[in-house]
Amino acid sequence: MSSVQTMAGGPPSTPAARPETAPEPAATPRRSASGGSRNLLSRTAFRVVLLGSSVLFLYPFLWLVSASVKPRPEVFDNLLIPEHFAPGNYARIWNAEPVLNWFLNSVTVSLAAAATVTVSSSLVAFGFAYFRFPGRNVLFGLVLGTMMLPGAVTMIPVYLIWNTAGLATTQVPLWAGNLFGSAFYIFLLRQFFLGLPREVFEAARVDGASYWTMFWRIAVPLCKPAMIVTFVFEIQASWSDLMRPLIYLRDPELFTLPRGLKAVVDRFGQSGEAEWEIVLAGSVITTLPMIILFFILQRYFVSGIATQGRKG
Amino acid sequence: MPGVTVAPAPGPQPRARPRRVTGLRRREALAGYGFLAPWLIGFTVFMAGPMIASFALSLTDYDILTPPEYVGWDNYRELLADPRVGLSLANTLVFALLHVPLTMLVALTLASVLARVGRRSAGFFRTVFYLPVVTPRVAVGVLFLLLFNGQVGLVNSTLEGFGIEGPEWTTDAPWVKPGLVVMSLWSVGGTVVIYLAALKNVPTELYEAAAIDGASAWRQFRHITLPMISGALFFTFIVLTIASLQVFDEAYTAYYGTAAAGYSSDAALFYLIYLFQQAFRFLHMGYASAMAWLLFLVIVVITVIQVRVSRRFVYYEGQ
Amino acid sequence: MSNRRTKFATTAAILALVLSGCGGVGANNDKLSGDGKPVTLTSMGFGAGDEIAKVRVDEALKTISPDKVKLSENAFDAQQFLSAVAAGSPPDLVYLGRQVLGSYAAKDNLMPLTDCIAKQKIDMKQYRVPAVKEVTLDGKVYGLPEFYSNRIVLINNAALKEAGVDPAGVTTSDWAALTDLARTLTKRNGKGKLSRIGFDPKIPEFLPMWARANGVSIISEDGRTANLADPKLVEALEYTVSLINLQGGWGKFKAFRDSFDFFGAKNQFAKNQLGAFPMEDWYLNVLAENSPDVQITAVPFTGLDGQTVDFVSGQAWAIPAASKHKDVACEFIKTMTDSKTWVKAAQARAKARAAENKPYTGTYTGNLVADQTIFGELVKPSGNTSLDAAVQVVLKAQESAVTLPSSPAGEEFLKAWESAVNRVLSGDQKPAEALAQAQEEAQKALDAAAGN
Q: Is B81 on the interface with C (CB under 8 A)?
């Protein structure tokens, strides 16, 4: 855990702008001429490796999009440009299932999940970062411990709680658990709050600011990037979730996109009787919003993940 | 609470303070608990409570519709005798054994290469590698079924181009798990980004010094890179293992559910899928709770072993 | 301060209401039903996909107007149904397989329709007897039968001509000959990949039919004793698996079959990717609509004794015991399965097909009276000899219909033998071993259900 402290000591810079002190061999000074050309050679080799693997990573997307606009018998022809263009696949899934509902449900649920987890986790994180109170380290250890707790262990009792509350067939259980913070985000945000110089708060306190003001007016604005990371991460996690919608949602009009896509697979993907083009159109509809979001906010996605490793 | 607050606070600077500040400190402590309140409530209601409840349930027969009936250790006895518990556990362990090391190896390779190209192209490739990570797992399950179709899928068609006859990834029992593992490597991007960040944190001077000493690239990697990023390796090792023991989405999409039921493949019956079926398809809540506890124990044991073993290899800065 | 706090609390409460409002399932509507205000019934398992469904739904909605039914396109899902029951908010109506209905009836998740039948004066005699038997448990009727799916063998004439075999001569009574035929019809391309399946035995789902062909039933007549370890059944499974193995094995076989354009114009017959397979009658409609020019031959599925085995199954409408609108639900399902409604729907389809200049091959319902009109008046010789003949084969086969008896553990029983077949297909177990295990699992479930 000590590398955590190293990081926490740093200034609360924008995570994406965190200085990247890269060991770039190319920049290593003074190599012999032959070494330089070998270097160039190896760099080219690396580029080739990267380009090759990029094809492996990108091609499934291209295949997916292309196959989703092919007529049924051509889905498996593995041509990148469809021989016959069949955008009607999208019209068919649109008519067959309440796709718009699913999309809006996914948007609502993931926004609710992300908003609640960001607010609650930053409250808790600030509690851990700023205040001194008995049992703090033990409690924080507990927070870290719950990160390792498999969700499967609590799945059934939590379902029973929602069932007793009469909410077991609604969308509420998909996000309401987030009202209480989430270990990983608490950890992440605490790091950022710890990075704020304590003097700022002491000065505010001298001016008579309440703890709430210190949190809301000072800590939160200074840690906005970290909060956006939390928000974006949770949007993505919540958007992809299949297990909870499977457990809780019954009415197809309440389905989220992944749950809906599973229903589409069940309905149109029967062995030997499959209509894959519909399933593929559904897959594109489920995936595309996340891809777009990723392109807009990618620095937050990437910096959030990168911070994870530094907990070690 | 008041009784607790009198105890000396283990703050970062535990130096003795004058008596008059105690009131202030008590207020600070109370405020601290206040900020922690959401988590404290959540922990009690949604974690600790359910953990205990889950254990209590595991000693009962419970189908929600009728009150639970105490059956002692029957569920655990039945569980040990259930061939499908053994099968699903074995499937899950095989998946984890393939998935975790391969993910780490591929991610480390890609990250090492990324660390060696200019920053601009590294950014581009990082984006490319990360894209599959944001793809919902259900869609990945669909892609698996289609791309890995042994007769007409893209993967085998491509292999054929190299003169290799690919296996029946989606239908031939011994190949289902390897297929799912290969598919899972598509989503290796998260681990790549973690390793890349760790690699960039290795001080350049170390390499320079080693280069002057004439150390080969391999020796530099073995004696500088690996120890310096061992923290990140250890972290991903643990996290990937825990996640892979709970693998669900892709396999469930591809092989289970209403329609696929007639053709499900036991080779893809992972532990969480079987648990889910027991709990929510058959409403065997007691039995499923016992299964959940078994999984918990398995994860704890594996994690403890991992921590013990890793302790010998992980290098922490400042130690 | 307290004022602000109240404000916050109010906002939070409103927010919670708004957010949970997205999840509220008509709970408020139910309370209104007493006031005579229109209600909306929730349902599970039935979607109005084609004209046969749409016309009948429109009819049924007319009879319950101003009440409404919210249909859901997705198939009945045991997990969803049970969790809805557990949550105390089951759908008002379910549409599910007659084979599995017994499971839910035995657990009292579904209500007996005795009162419903009496109140609505439902004429039970209009339904086909085997279908009603499928939904009767302990003397009580739990569902109203819908479709009546007959199974016959469909043969691709082109493939057989290529092999120099007369399609009309194909029989499933001679297993050795069928093996030879399957081998002859199977085709591989230059690279060793399947390009045509010779004969698809359609297991696991058709195993009960193969069992019948070999002279046994997979479950006792009273639906309480599993007969999965019967040597005759083992033999039937061994045989059908051998058919798949000689065509490349399950892996290749299924992967190739997964690429069929089953519901399209380039289906496996049109593209000559399949020699023959036993199939349900509704597939004739699919062929008539999408590839009416493809020449096929239908022959009855026959047992080793040469007798026709028309293995029949289908769906049924049922009403959950905790349904909040039982009377409306009853009225709805009465109309859905009534002979007049079926005939109207069949007329609509016949008209739609005629407009497209395509043949109408009939709709096989669980309603005998409806079928008499449909096949007596609406299905006319279309001039498409291949399909016309096929319809006659189905009608003839129908006289030898067999169904599985209703069982208090239908769902578990189905799962037990299907998994056994899957284990054999994926090479995990030998047929005898897999079926012995299934027998044990199934009998355990049956005994438990009987104890309820």
A: no
Tokens of C366: 């669980």
Q: Which residues pair with C177 in a beta bridge?
A: none
What is chain B's pLDDT, residue by residue, as a tens digit (319 residues)?
333 333 333 444 444 455 556 777 888 889 999 999 999 999 999 999 999 999 999 999 998 888 899 999 999 999 999 888 999 999 999 999 999 999 999 999 999 998 888 777 888 888 899 999 999 999 999 999 999 988 889 999 999 889 888 898 988 888 999 999 999 999 999 999 899 989 988 888 888 888 888 888 888 888 889 888 988 899 899 889 999 999 999 999 998 876 544 466 788 999 999 999 899 888 889 999 999 999 999 999 998 999 888 877 776 654 3
Beta-carbon separation of B64 and C86 below 8 A: yes
Chain centre distance of CA A120: 17
- Around C216, how many Cα atoms within 13 Å sit in the side-chain half-sphere? 16
Nearest-CB residue to A133 (from B28, B190, B299): B28
C25 touches chain A (CB under 8 A): yes
The secondary element (H helix, E strand) that includes residue C86 is helix C78-86
- Does B7 contact C at CB distance below 8 Å? no
C200 closest CA partner among C146, C159, C153, C135: C153
Q: A71, C264: Cβ pair inside 8 Å?
A: yes
Task: Say if CB A186 and CB A193 are below 8 A apart.
Answer: no
Q: For residue C72, list chain A residues with Cβ-Cβ distance below 8 A.
A: 251-252
Sort out which chain B residues have CB atoms less than 8 A from A42's CB and list them.
116
Of B262, B75, B99, B292, the closest CA to residue B186 belongs to B99
Which of B58, B114, B201, B205 is most worth mutating to test chain A (most A CB atoms within 10 A of its CB)? B201
Would an 8 Å CB–CB cutoff place B252 in contact with chain A? yes
User: Which B positions 56-75 lie with beta carbon below 8 A of chain C?
Assistant: 63-65
Name the residue in chain A with its Cα closest to that of B153: A76
Contacts of A161 in chain B (CB under 8 A): 45-46, 50
> What ipTM, to 2 d.p.?
0.86
Find the length of chain B: 319
A196: Cα separation from own chain's centroid? 25
Q: C353 by DSSP, 3-state: which?
A: helix
**B129/B167 Cα distance (integer angstroms):** 26
Residue B80 makes CB contacts below 8 A (sequence gap 6+) with: none
Closest residue in chain B to residue A211, using alpha carbons only: B31
The pair of structure tokens assigned to C335 is: 């109309």
**Is the model's pTM score more than 0.90?**
no
Smallest CA–CA distance from B30 into chain A, residue: A133
Q: How far is C302 from chain A (nearest CA, A)?
A: 23
| Partners of C308 in beta bridges | C302
| Residue C352 burial (10 A CB sphere; 0-12, 13-18, 19+) | middle
Buried b (16+ CB within 10 A) or exposed e, A184-207: bbbbbbbbbbbbbeeeebeebeee
